[in-house]
Each structure stands twice: as structure tokens, then as C-alpha cells.
Amino acid sequence: MLKFFSWITVILWMLLIFYLSQQPVATSNELSSGITERIIETVEIVAPQDNLSVDSIHHTIRKNAHFFIYFFLGIFVLIALKRRVMKGYRKERIALYICVAYSISDEVHQLFVSGRGAQVKDVLIDSAGAAMGILFASLIDSLVKSRARSKQLASKETV
């Protein structure tokens, strides 16, 4: 049952990416400008002496959105694949292939959206985000397994 829900999570996340990508450029810019404005408001509370404008950080926010949405896609795909028994780092490679393929298909999809286009730079940012998400999830998994093994060994020694 967990296998089913983990793949549902992947599909829902991919649908979110598709939904965001199908927005015309004006709608997409309006959404990211709103997020940028909220970030600036928050930064101004913390550091009131900084004069930030939406234009100065808008591009950075948009590219970070690419990175982080694929960071989480990488984690979700890896979790879904972890339910299968595979040797070595095969799960991680397959997860990365799935994420890169989806990123490429997403950029091709944007060729058909008003005012949008495909950018190789976005595929690279998406791929880096997915790779970091996969690496992060793998490290957390390794730490959890290592800790469980340590506890298991400690309990055997006390017996």
C-alpha cells in the first residue's frame, strides 16, 4: 500500500509542475512576483537597512523555484523506488533519469505555452535540484540505517 501512495505522491508532484509550466508567461510572472514581494517584506523585517527591489531578485527566485521543485521530485521518486529491491545505487540512478527526463519533457511542453520557451539552463537547474534531493534522501536513509544497526549491535552486546 505504501508503494502505491509513494507513486501517487510522485504523480501529484509532476502534475503540480505541469500545472505551473502550462501557465502563460504573464500568469507565471505574476505568481513569482508575488512570492518575491513576500520574501522582500520578510527580509526587510529582519534587515531593514537593505534596499531590495522585486526586479533585483525576481530572476533568482524563479531559478531557485526550479531547483527546489525538482529537489523534492528527486526525493519523492527515490522514496517510491526504495520500495523495490535493487542493488547498489541503481535506485538513485533511475530516480535521476526519471527526473531529468521529466525536466526535458517539461521544457518541451513549454514550447507550446504562450510566451514561454524551452531553456537548457532550466533543465540543468532542474537536474541539479533532483540530484541534490536524491543525494539528501540517500544520506538521510544511510544515517537512519546506520543508527538502527548501531542500536541493534548495542542491544546484542547487553544480552
SSE class = mainly alpha
The oligomeric state of the chains shown is single chain
Parts with pLDDT < 50 across at least 5 consecutive residues: none
**C-alpha-based Rg, rounded:** 20 Å
Q: Determine the strand fraction and express it as a percent band.
A: under 5%
First-residue to last-residue Cα separation:
36 Å
Helix content: over 70%
Largest sheet: none
- Helices, by number, come to 5
What sequence of helices (H) and strands (E) makes up the elements? HHHHH
Output mean pLDDT: 87
Which of globular, elongated, flat, extended, rod-shaped describes the shape? globular
Commentary on this structure:
The structure is a single chain. By secondary structure, the chain is mainly α. Helices cover 82% and strands 0% of the residues. The chain is built from five helices and no strands.
Please describe the topology of this protein.
Layout: H1 2-21, H2 25-46, H3 54-82, H4 90-110, H5 120-157
Helix pairs in contact: 1-3, 1-4, 2-3, 3-4, 3-5, 4-5
Offer a few descriptive terms.
159 residues; mainly alpha
In short:
82% of the residues lie in helices and 0% in strands. With 159 residues, it is mainly α.
